[in-house]
Every structure is written in structure tokens, then in C-alpha cells.
Amino acid sequence: MRPIKDTPLTRDGKVLVLAYDHGLEHGPVDFGAVPESADPDHVFEIAKHPAVTSLAVQKGIAEGYYPSYADDVTLLAKLNGTSNLWMGEPNSAVNCSVEYAAEIGADAVGFTLYGGANNEVGMAEEFREIQEAARAQGLPVVMWSYPRGQGVKNDKKPKTIAYAARQGLELGADVSKVKYPGSTAAMKDVVDMAGGMKVIMSGGSKRTDEAFLSDVKGAIDAGAAGLAVGRNVFQRENPEQLLDALEQIIFEEAPLDTALSQLD
Ligand code: FBP
Fold first, then answer.
1. How confident is the model over 87-115, as pLDDT tens digits?
2. Helices 120-137 and 158-171, interaxial angle, to 10°?
3. Which of 106, 182, 251, 255 is at 20 to 30 A from 137, Cα to Cα?
4. Which residue has the least CA distance to atom 9 on ligand 1?
5. CA 200 to CA 216: how far, in whole Å?
6. What are the tens digits of pLDDT across the range 21-79?
């Protein structure tokens, strides 16, 4: 398997992506709980935490804010994305090229593939162009691999999630980011289906610390390389505390209780 350990996307082979593309994907509703989270500077400051191996943002946020943080934050440029105002079958516009991402300082690129959607074929062809351009630039590629749309009855089914991870391997991603299938055993099947490619868990909507960290622990115990998380971090008043706890679980392989003891 092509190693990505020498890229800034990982630390000790582990991955913790702080995702902050929600302003496009979901809109202002995601910033209601903590209004300052609408300010990209607030989230770039959070991304300086040593547990965060990269910050995933769309082009406009990268262009406007990354220059002030280039020494402290690793940039993962999300190349496609669509607003929640779009009511058609799941689809995602390519908003940034790999070449432009590299020009504005990206260390890695990300792309959403909706397997099972009407436009899966078109998205896979866009991914091919992006993956090959990223290889030419030496940038690792993270696939947000989210089966949904008319071909998918239940996107939480473990076999569907395992298929999503496998799509990343087959199409040449370095990392597949998938939804948590609900248990360590099911996540192990997902990880096994990805060969040696790194699989990371997608954070999901905000829940209690214990529920969230228990899912993360389940994913790590199953062999996942880490996590991409947005709302469970930036919808908190004290995100650094949660990142301390995540650092324990992901990088120190600490038990859940040790991680929970980092929190008030
Ligand atoms: P969360 O941890 O907040 O779930 O963020 C991960 C992420 O993949 C974001 O990059 C993206 O905006 C969002 O989830 C997409 O969520 P949805 O499942 O609603 O499409």
C-alpha cells in the first residue's frame, strides 16, 4: 500500500481531520450552538491544537484565512461540496482544482463521492481527474465516501459502509472517511475491506461526550486510523478539552475512562 506517513496529513500514522466545510454543506444552522464558530478565525485557532493533523475547508475559507495560519495548521482543501439548498439527488460541485489547491498552500485534498447516487459515475470520473492531479502534485487524497441517493436504502448498514471504504481503495484514495457503522465488530469489517488503506470515522452530529468518544474508541479499536470531526468539536464551548480527550484515544490508545477524565 502506498505509504502516506511522510506527508503532513498524519502524525505517527494517525489522522485527526478537523472538518469545517459545514457553512457550505449545512449552512448557518450548524453555527447556532456556538455563534463564534461562524468565524473561521475561531476554528483556525482551534486547529492549532497538536492533536489536529489537518483542517478541512473549502476554497474560499482557505484563500481568505489560511495565509495567517500557514505556520501552525495543515491545510486539507475540500475540492467539492454543495449547499443544503440543493434539493436534487445527492451530488457535489467541484469548486477547486488540485493545482489551485496546491497554489494556495494545501497539503492534502478531499473529495466527496456519493456512491449510489444518480451521478455516481460523473463523480467517479471527476475523482479520477483529481486523484491523478493530486499524485502529480504529491498531495494525499481523502475520500469522503458517503453512499446515499436513489441506489441506497440504508446508508448506515455495515455492508454499505464497508463498500464505501472499499470504493476509496479501488479508486485510489489514500484515506476513506466513512460513517461509523455502530460497533467495533462492524467497523473491523469496514477496515478489513479497505486493505491497507487508512479508514477514518466521520464524526456526525453533536452528541454527549461519552457517546461520541465511545464511538471513536470503538473505531480505533477496530483498526481505524483516526477521525474527521466537525460539529462535536466546534459546537462546544471548550473544544480544546475534547481534543485533549481525542488525543488520548487516537494517539495514546488510552482507555475511554482516561479520555473522559480530561473533561469537566
Ligand atoms: P461532522 O463531524 O460534523 O459530521 O463533519 C464531518 C463531515 O463530513 C463534514 O465534512 C461535512 O460537512 C459533514 O460531515 C457532512 O455531513 P452530512 O452527513 O450531513 O452530509
1. 999 999 999 999 999 999 999 999 999 99
2. 50
3. 251
4. 19
5. 10
6. 999 999 999 999 999 999 999 999 999 999 999 999 999 999 999 999 999 999 999 99
CA–CA dist 11, 8 (Å, integer): 7
188 belongs to the catalytic site: no
Instruction: Tell me how far the alpha carbon of residue 205 lies from the centroid of ligand 1, in angstroms.
Output: 8
* Active-site position among 14, 59, 78, 177: 177
Q: What does the block give as the cell for 50?
A: 497538536
